[in-house]
Amino acid sequence: MPTSTASITVPQADRVLFRMCKHFAIKVPVTFDSEHADIDFLFGRCRAQRTGDTLSLHCAANSVELLQRVQHVIGAHLGLMARDKQLAVAWQSA
Fold first, then answer.
1. CA-based torsion, 69, 74, 77, 83: positive or negative
2. DSSP structure string for 25-57
3. Mind listing the pLDDT tens digit for each residue in 31-58?
4. Torsion sign over Cα 9, 7, 14, 53
5. Cβ atoms within 10 A of the Cβ of 35, count?
6. Around Cβ 71, how many Cβ atoms within 10 Å?
7. How many CB atoms lie within 10 A of CB 46?
8. Which of 55, 62, 81, 82 has a CB 3.0–4.6 Å from the CB of 10, allowing a cystine?
9. Are the beta carbons of 72 and 26 closer than 8 angstroms?
């Protein structure tokens, strides 16, 4: 199973994580608290851990193509929730 990780620092990461989880929870299973999140898409999953203003992300899917989709969805929504359209997530294969 292909996996990837990323670490990104955003101002008010607790609020960003909360907003993103509440947004995704409308359509997919999400469990979260102020420091952790598990988001289960039909095409893959993402686990997030917050330490201060840093979010550590770990994503997995059944294929490279599906993993890229998870990365795109998470990256785009992080930018929206952080209100930073220029936010870029640097994913690394795990």
1. negative
2. TTTS-EEE-SSEEEEEETTEEEEEEEETTEEEE
3. 999 999 999 999 999 999 999 999 999 9
4. negative
5. 12
6. 19
7. 24
8. 82
9. no
